[in-house]
Amino acid sequence: MKKYLIFAFVYLTISHFVLSCSDDDDTNSVMMDNQTFVSTAASSNQFEIMAGAQAVEKGSAEAVRSYGEHMVNDHGKAGEELKAIAETQGFTVPMELAAKEKANLDQLTPLTGEAFDKAFAQIMVKSHEDAVLLFSEAASQSGVPNSALRTWANEKLPTLEAHLEDAKALNTQINP
Comparing C-alpha atoms, which of 131, 136, 144, 127 is closest to residue 86? Predict the structure, then answer.
């Protein structure tokens, strides 16, 4: 009898540990935390504004200058919206660009004319692909936990997808 009780106790203890180690708990699987999304989105957004301003100033093709102006306007509004949400929800909007966006801006800054146009068009495609992915992940049910941020990401997604399509068309035109 004593052996049976010891065996039962060991069996139940091992079963408990095995079951508690299961990775089937999807209720807390969040892709990114709120502050990570705010910081990444803010950097991406600020890059689009800064690169767009350079396009308006230095672009040789009218299509590049027009797209740049569009980026300044749309991303300027989005940046203000993000700041407002972040303030009410207690998140910090960084003022500096992240390394990826800084490297892209550093690549564009010394260029002028046709060289600028070509690099700008290529970078706009990549940066908007990254932004669409970021906002898609944040807007998903397993995205950011904060509902205001998740809703905002979902609302901005169609605009970012349109920017991506426009960037692809611009890139095809500038880099045939």
Answer: 144
